[in-house]
Amino acid sequence: MTNEPAAVFEAVTKSYGSVRAADGLDLTVRRGETLALLGRNGAGKSTAISMLLGLDTPDSGRISLLGGTPEQAVLAGRIGAMLQEGRAVSRVTVRELVGFVARTYPAPLPVSDALALAGLTALADRRVDRLSGGQAQRVRFAVALAGDPELIVLDEPTSALDVEARAEFWEAMHGYARRGNTVLFSTHYLEEADTAADRIVVLDAGRIVADGTSEELKRAAGGAVVSFDLAGAPSAYLSDLPGVTEVEIRGDRARLRTDDSDGTVRALAARDAIRGLEVAPLALNDVFLSLTRGRAATPETEPVR
Ligand SMILES: Nc1ncnc2c1ncn2[C@@H]1O[C@H](COP(=O)(O)OP(=O)(O)OP(=O)(O)O)[C@@H](O)[C@H]1O
C-alpha cells in the first residue's frame, strides 16, 4: 500500500444554473479509510461522487483518483461503484451475473470471493430477479467488487433497505474494508455515518462544513444536553441559565443544550428543578443540526433521518 491518497479534491466547484452543487471542495481521502459524506438531500453528495468517478466534470478545480485522473483509475478497473439507480437484470443467477462482470476486468476477484464478501454464497444459484431488496443490493455490491477495486464508492447504498438488511449490508462492506481497501459512501442517515464510517465529512449547500471522526465532531461542537421534568413549573427562566444555548420543551420535559453542563445543573439544583435529571453528551444529530441550521427550510430539502 502506498501513502498516496486514494482521492483528492482541490478547490472543486460545479454549478447547475444558479445552484452551486460543489462550492470549493477541498478533500483528501486517505487509503484504507471508510469515509461518509453526510448531508441532506441536495447537499451535493451525488455531484461530488459523479465528479470523483469522472461521470461529470468540475467547472473549476482538480480531482485526482489513485494518483491519476478519475478516467484513468476507472478504466484500469481500480474503482468499484454503486450508484443510486440500478438497472434490473433478469433470468441470470447471482453467480452468472458477478462472473460476467468480473470477466470484463483485467485482474478480477475470484467470483466465489466476491460472493462471500457480499454475503451471497448461499444465494449464488438464485436468479437475480427473485431476491429481496436487501439481497439485490448486496448483489450490486458484489458486482462493484468484481474487479477487485482498491476504492469503492457507494452513493446512498442503503436508502431503500430496512434495518436488518442495512446491518447485513454494512457487515459485507466492513469485510471489504478490512482487506485494506478504501470506502467512500454517501448517506443521510446520521446513525449510519456514526457507526459505519471512520471519518465523517458533512456537506451542506456544496460546501464541507465539518470533517472528522464522530467523536471529534461532537467534541468540536462542544457541550451537552441537560434534560429534566418540569413538573408543572414555569420554563421562561431556562434560557437565562448559565451555559444554556437552546431550550426545547416537549410535553412536561425540558431539554437544554448547554456549553457548561456543571453550571446549568447547579443553577437547576438551586431552584430544585432536578426531577428526572439527565446529562448526556451531544448526539451527532445535534451537531449536524447546528452545522447545517438555517439552510434547511426549503421545499427540496428534507431533514436527515
Ligand atoms: N443534473 C442536474 N441538473 C440541475 N441541477 C442539478 C443536477 N444535479 C444536481 N443538481 C442540483 O445540485 C444540488 C446538489 O445535488 P446532489 O444530487 O449532488 O445532492 P445530494 O446531496 O446527492 O442529494 P440526494 O441526497 O438527494 O441524492 C441540488 O440542488 C440539485 O437539485
Description:
By secondary structure, the protein is an alpha/beta fold. The chain has two domains: 7-212, P-loop containing nucleotide triphosphate hydrolases (Rossmann fold); 219-292, Alpha-Beta Plaits (2-Layer Sandwich). Helix content is 30%, strand content 27%. It contains ten helices and 13 strands. α5 packs parallel to α6 (163-178). The longest helix is centred in the middle third of the chain and has 16 residues, at 163-178. The radius of gyration is 23 Å and the shape is elongated. Bound molecules: adenosine-5'-triphosphate (ATP). Adenosine-5'-triphosphate binds at residues 16, 19, 21, 39, 41-47, 188. Adenosine-5'-triphosphate is lined by residues 16, 19, 21, 39, 41-47, 188. One of its GO terms (biological process) is response to antibiotic. It comes from Streptomyces termitum. Residues 7-230 form the ABC transporter domain.
Describe the structure concisely.
This protein is an alpha/beta fold. 30% of the residues lie in helices and 27% in strands. It binds adenosine-5'-triphosphate.
Blueprint (SSEs and pairs):
Elements: E1 7-16, E2 19-29, E3 34-38, H1 45-52, E4 60-65, H2 70-75, E5 79-82, H3 94-102, H4 111-117, H5 133-145, E6 151-155, H6 163-178, E7 182-187, H7 190-196, E8 199-204, E9 207-212, H8 214-221, E10 224-229, E11 244-250, E12 253-258, H9 261-270, E13 278-281, H10 284-292
Parallel strand pairs: 3-7, 3-8, 5-6, 6-7
Antiparallel strand pairs: 1-2, 1-4, 8-9, 10-12, 10-13, 11-12
Helix pairs in contact: 3-4, 5-6
This protein binds adenosine-5'-triphosphate.
Membrane topology: Peripheral membrane protein
Subcellular location: Cell membrane
Domain ABC transporter: 7-230
